[in-house]
Predict the 3D structure of the following.
Amino acid sequence: MKKKPTDNAAIQLINWITERAIDGIPPLCSAENLALEYEIDTSYPDTEERIESLINWETSKNFTSGFITGLGGIITIPVSIPASMGASWVIQARMAAAIAKLAGHDIKSDRVKTFVLLTLVGDACKDVLKDVGIKVGQGLAKAALKNIPGKMLIEINKKVGFRLLTKAGETGAVNLIKMIPLAGGFIGGTFDAAACRVVGKQAKTLFYTPGNK
């Protein structure tokens, strides 16, 4: 019988992801510097194009299983989850934070960090927000973010942590597929890339308001 994730494990995981996503972990730069690379590139006509390009590039990283495996080999995770999964979440959360930065949000803010983490659960983020009584349309208003109480942020963090730990326990079949040479790497890479794109689109929905330059 599998043990249910504990509050402590959930909080440990989300803190671990947040720290590495925001500050970066070699060879990945910080989320702020990642956003800056796109901000200073004048080839993009607007913020939306920058965000779309960022999502496409980070998705390609998640497809490359060798990159994920290499990154997973140099990280230490405080809870029992596959290193490759932890590495994928760091890449995805870093992308989401960079999108938030491009959209004009302060990614050092605890509130923004919580919503960055929330993107990792993809479409399920709507259920998490509904559970705590928050309604979000297209783009988070900075004023609305400031009104979210700290206790609610802690509750959201826990819910995200629990969902990620549960997901880690349910992906045994995918991990077995990845062990199959060639075909396994392709299937596993496709799975990771698809998950990354969902996170990117969710981050764009949460943080970006159409029409913003």
The chain has a mean pLDDT of 80.
